[in-house]
Structures are given as C-alpha cells and as structure tokens.
Amino acid sequence: MNQSPSNHDESYVEVIGDTVCGKHLMMTIIISVCLSLAGFFLGREVIFANIAAEEMIESYSLLLGIGGSVAGLILNTFLFKPKRRLNETASTSDELSSVYEKLQFDIHEEREAIKNDPVIIQEMKEQGFYDMFMESEKEVTQDTASSRKKEDDQ
User: Fold this and answer.
1) Which of 31, 63, 69, 109 is the most exposed place for a label (fewest CB within 10 A)?
2) For residues 21 and 43, what is the distance between their CA atoms, to the nearest angstrom?
3) Would you say 20 and 13 are in contact if contact means Cβ atoms under 8 Å apart?
4) Looking at the chain, which runs of residues are DSSP E strands?
5) pTM, full prediction
C-alpha cells in the first residue's frame, strides 16, 4: 500500500492499483470482520448448537459466517459510494498526442506496435477509435509520400 497526499481531510491509499479512502477502507474491513465473526459465533453458540448434529455445528456455523461476510459486503456497498468521476469527451488525435506527451510516452512507437498487431487493429476498429488514434499518423504518412513525390518530380 502506498499512501498518497490529498487535498482534502481524507487520506487516500493505493490498494491493488486502485485508490481508496483509508478511513472508509478501515471501516469496511471492520464491518466485514464483525459481521463474519458474529455470524460464525451466533451459529456455533446459539442457532446450530440446539438444532444440528454435533459434527455439523462447525460447518453450518462457517456457512453462517460466510453469510455474514456477504451481508457486510452488501452493507458496505450502500454505505460507501465510489467517489470517482468519469468525464467522457470526444478526443481528437491532437489531444491524444498531448496526453501521450504529458505521460512521456512515444505515440509513434505505440502506433507502430499497433500496426503490427492485427488483433489490436480489429478490436480498435470494432470500438470505433482506430481512425482517431491513427489519424495524425496517416497525415504524417501522406505528407511524407507527397514530399517524396515532389522530390521525384524535381
């Protein structure tokens, strides 16, 4: 877990590639553990001790503990809503190039890798963003071809 700085009072931690509020993470763990243990001990000491065969009490109690864990999961989903905001905007090839530049990735290298993989090309075409991603590459290719043609004509 990496702790990251925050602009608000809440501190965020990175867990398995996702950023979560540390306080809410601890609350969800506490709720889940408490409901799981409550289910297990309630089953073992109260419910199944009176109605089940002695060799089955632990097994049934374990199932009730798992049920408590699932109840904790459901409760946590209602208590702690995602805070992530997704903004979808239409992107242009220039915007994509600037994003790659900010991330210090080489977009031309990425495009060359895509050109050599027909599976990725097909997937990108099916999703409808192949032309947007390769748009400026086509312009560069066309500019290069027209430059060569002019040189050949001279």
Assistant:
1) 109
2) 33
3) yes
4) 2-4, 12-15, 18-21
5) 0.53
pLDDT at 17: 79
The answer to whether residues 67 and 32 touch, using CB atoms and an 8 Å cutoff, is no
In this structure, what token pair is assigned to residue 124?
């990108």
10-residue stretch averages of pLDDT, the chain, 154 residues long = 53 84 94 97 94 94 97 96 75 78 85 87 86 69 58 64
**The pLDDT value given to residue 4:** 47
Domain-located, residue 109: yes
Residue with the two structure tokens 């043609």: 149
Based on the domain organization, do 67 and 118 belong to the same domain? no
Specify the 3-state DSSP secondary structure of 73: helix
Q: What is the dihedral of CA 30, 35, 37, 43, to 10 degrees?
A: 180
Tallying the residues shown for the chain, one arrives at 154
Instruction: Give residue 139's Cα distance to chain centre.
Output: 34
List the domain range (segments joined by +) for residue 119: 93-139
Q: In whole angstroms, give the CA distance from residue 41 to residue 35.
A: 10
